[in-house]
Design a protein that fits this description.
Strand order of the largest sheet: 1-2-3-4-5-6-7-8
CATH superfamily: Aldolase class I
CATH class: Alpha Beta
Strand content: 15-25%
Helix content: 40-55%
Largest sheet: 8 strands, parallel, barrel
Shape: globular
Oligomer: single chain
Number of domains: 1
Distance between the termini: 35 Å
Number of strands: 8
Length: 240
Amino acid sequence: MTWVRDDLSVKIFADGADLDDIAPLACDPLIRGFTTNPTLMRQSGIKDYAAFARAVLKAIPDKPISFEVLADDPAEIRRQGLAIAEWGDNVYVKIPVTNSEGVALEGLIHDLSHRGVKINVTAVFTLDQVWSSCLALKGGAPSVVSVFAGRIADAGFDPVPHMRAALAICRSVDRSIELLWASPREILNVVQADEIGVDIITVTEAIRGKLHLLGKDLGEFSRETVLMFKRDGEAAGFRL
């Protein structure tokens, strides 16, 4: 039985770098877009970034997908951003909110966005970073601000009020800027993002595997859990 709630307004984007996992999702109406990053690609054994991107875009020609720049120098980030944008009309270019030395990149983000490049500002944590990103994107091409709510929770902070405040900033600056809940840790985050009004949430393969549980009857869930313990105890041959 499928339990996925049919009243979710938050858009679910698949996050990953395994083409065998990604390609079948192109026709899944529940998945509205895709994201990836260099870390995920490295973990998947990707050797040729451009070739991987071409294969992904061939499989997914009509849903938004974000590819990240690899550079740290602003001039090289600009060059790579413009190059990635040429890969397809559905491509968003992931630009980090700062480089690895903490130098803010809002000027570069503004430049690319107002040249028509669809930007996904990534690795955003603080509300000041949300403000600066939104101001840079205001009036530019379609854009996304990715706030790493999961990692904020890892640091011991409640991501819900943080994301609510981030959404208020996005709406106050430019209502066309979409807020993305990045790095969720559990299915509950999908519900939280939806209740807040966040535009997008990314889900990894591990979380996608639990989407069918959304809205499941808890009494039935309890019975299934008891049945699981019963079957496993029998299968193990335990005796008391």
